[in-house]
Amino acid sequence: MDEQMSMPFDLLLGRKTYEIFAAYWPYVKSENPDYPIAGKFNSAKKYVASRTLEKLDWTNSILIKGDIVQEIKKLKLQNGPELQVYGSSNLIQTLLKYDLIDGLRLKIFPITLGLGKRLFGDGTIPAAFKLVDSKTSTTGVIVATYERAGKVKTGSFALEKPSEAELARRKRLEEGK
Questions:
Q1: Domain 9-174 - what CATH class?
Q2: Would you state the torsion angle of the CA atoms of residues 123, 65, 4, 130, taken in this order, to the nearest 10 degrees?
Q3: Cα(17)–Cα(165) distance, rounded to whole angstroms?
Q4: Which one in 1, 3, 5, 62 has a CA-CA gap of 20 to 30 Å to 106?
């Protein structure tokens, strides 16, 4: 997390995550050694995608309304710091669907909680990513950093000349068995 926040960044948040963050981070003192990211979150520019919010109270927050996809495309063209997304699962689905993600920093925690939201849900377009870094914390959290890697490459296990077993399998499929 320290490495991710060591460079300048702006935040891109969905409404729910914004509301959670805005009810917490502005009230944490920047100099509190237990929360070194407080100052960075509080000073960062925060772009908030919402269809329902009318007003944002957290300092440096900018509301994105209307065509969220077009507005985010404009943001990405600007010469500013990296846009980082935390939480915001509905917004991430939109970003994935419209190919607006340049990289992923996935934090994999060693717990299972049962059912939950899918990171790669319906509408996610196929996209290739390359692992560029991975680290494991002292508590077992894996931090995997991926960057875009061009077109999706698929492979096949098919033999140049199908085996007798493969030909028999195909025949059974044709016969509905």
A1: alpha beta
A2: 30
A3: 54
A4: 62
122-154 residue pLDDT tens:
878 889 999 999 999 999 999 999 999 988 888
How far is the C-alpha of 157 from the C-alpha of 160, rounded, in Å? 9
Tens digits of residue pLDDT in 71-121: 999 999 999 899 999 988 889 989 988 999 999 999 999 998 888 778 888
Which DSSP state fits 50?
A: -
Which residues are CB-neighbours of 46 under 8 A, at least 6 positions away? 10, 11, 13, 18, 21, 56, 58, 60, 61, 62
What is the side-by-side order of every strand in the sheet holding 142-148? 103-108, 142-148, 129-136
Domain ranges of the chain: 9-174
SS3 at position 72: helix
Distances (CA, A) of 9 to 15, 47, 82: 19, 11, 5
Tokens of 29: 């003192």
Within 13 Å of residue 142, how many CA atoms lie on the same side as its CB? 8
Contact 134, 146 (CB under 8 A): no
For residue 34, with 0-12 CB atoms within 10 Å meaning exposed, 13-18 middle and 19 or more buried, which class applies? exposed
Whole-structure pTM value: 0.80
**Nearest 5°: phi and psi at 64?**
-105, 115
